[in-house]
From TrEMBL:
Residues 26-99 form the NTP pyrophosphohydrolase MazG-like domain. Keywords: Methyltransferase, Transferase. It comes from the Bacteria. The lineage of its organism: Bacteria, Pseudomonadati, Spirochaetota, Spirochaetia, Spirochaetales. InterPro entries: MazG-like_dom, NTP-PPase_MazG-like_C, NTP-PPase_MazG-like_N, NTP_PyrPHydrolase_MazG. One of its GO terms (molecular function) is methyltransferase activity. Pfam families: MazG. The keyword Protein transport does not apply. This is Tetrapyrrole methylase family protein/MazG family protein. The keyword Heme does not apply. PANTHER family: NUCLEOSIDE TRIPHOSPHATE PYROPHOSPHOHYDROLASE (PTHR30522).
């Protein structure tokens, strides 16, 4: 039944590609944005635990996967069938603890039963020693186009696996405090150059080489602090991307509450009415 369902689906994809003016114009490169957006929508649906929505969005992701693969098939580079065959073989190869016929069985050095960490280590050995995917750096496998927070988190995890890590969470916290202090020192230099009063967000267009150097240094130190804070999340057992999504969702809910109540109270959303806005903000907090 599933094979027939996919075969029918694939025929529909090919028909759409052939008969729809929009689909006719698409290339693998042009579909990158659509693919990314559909994946994000699927992630949102999963986060919301809305099964009906998840089903729909996963279908959209599948459509993009199959369509992109088919575009390569049209060019004679590889087929959709070869794509499916490749991932099937990879699953078997990288799961020697599941499939007795796996090519990766030579990398089984210990039992991985009930130990996901050992499974991941075995996975990496198979990639390097069986598939020949050794790299100059453990960071080479991280996609260049990952969202920055996800990429930073992956970099921290990869470096840790290579043995480059702090000895304790207290060291991580201390390092973060050090980075914040360095960022503040860099900010003081910018503040003095522009006589910044701290009463509004700093907006600087450097006009001199000294100003540009100071602004670049501040940005660099902020990046160091942010990278350290993302690494701190790893030590806390938190995925920073998911944590940020929750924080944004909370902010959005509270801010919308402020907007609605300011409007109902006939009070303008303006800085001069800051106290009114904060009153509604605190009410929103109490309601959550």
């Amino acid at each position: 039944m599933r094979e027939n369902s996919f075969a029918h689906f694939f025929e529909i994809v090919k028909a759409v590609r052939k008969g729809c003016p929009w689909d006719k114009e698409q290339t693998p490169l042009s579909l990158r944005t659509t693919f990314f957006e559909e994946t994000c929508e699927a992630i949102d649906a999963i986060t919301q635990e809305d099964s009906a929505h998840v089903k729909e969005e996963l279908g959209d992701v599948l459509l993009n996967v199959v369509l992109i693969a088919y575009l390569f098939e049209e060019k004679g580079l590889f087929t959709v069938d070869e794509t499916i065959k490749a991932i099937t073989e990879k699953l078997i190869r990288r799961h020697p603890h599941v499939f007795a016929q796996s090519e990766g069985k030579s990398q089984v050095t210990e039992s991985v039963a009930g130990n996901p960490e050992k499974v991941l280590n075995q996975w990496e050995r198979i990639k390097e020693n069986v598939e020949g995917r050794k790299s100059e750096s453990v960071l080479d496998s991280i996609p260049e186009n990952f969202p920055p927070i996800l990429k930073a988190f992956k970099m921290a995890k990869k470096a840790s696996k290579a043995g480059f890590d702090w000895n304790s969470i207290s060291e991580v916290k201390l390092k973060f405090c050090e980075e914040l202090a360095e960022m503040h020192d860099a900010f003081i230099d910018v503040q003095q150059l522009h006589n910044y009063d701290g009463l509004h967000p700093l907006s600087v267009i450097p006009k001199t080489e000294e100003e540009k150097k100071a602004q670049d240094h501040l940005e660099e130190e902020y990046g160091d602090a942010l990278m350290c804070f993302i690494n701190y999340a790893r030590w806390l057992g938190i995925d920073p991307s998911i944590a940020l999504q929750k924080g944004m969702k909370k902010f959005e809910s509270r801010f919308r509450f402020v907007e609605e109540n300011m409007k109902n109270s006939n009070i303008d959303m303006d800085h001069k009415n800051h106290m009114d806005m904060m009153e509604f903000w605190n009410k929103a907090k109490q309601m959550q």
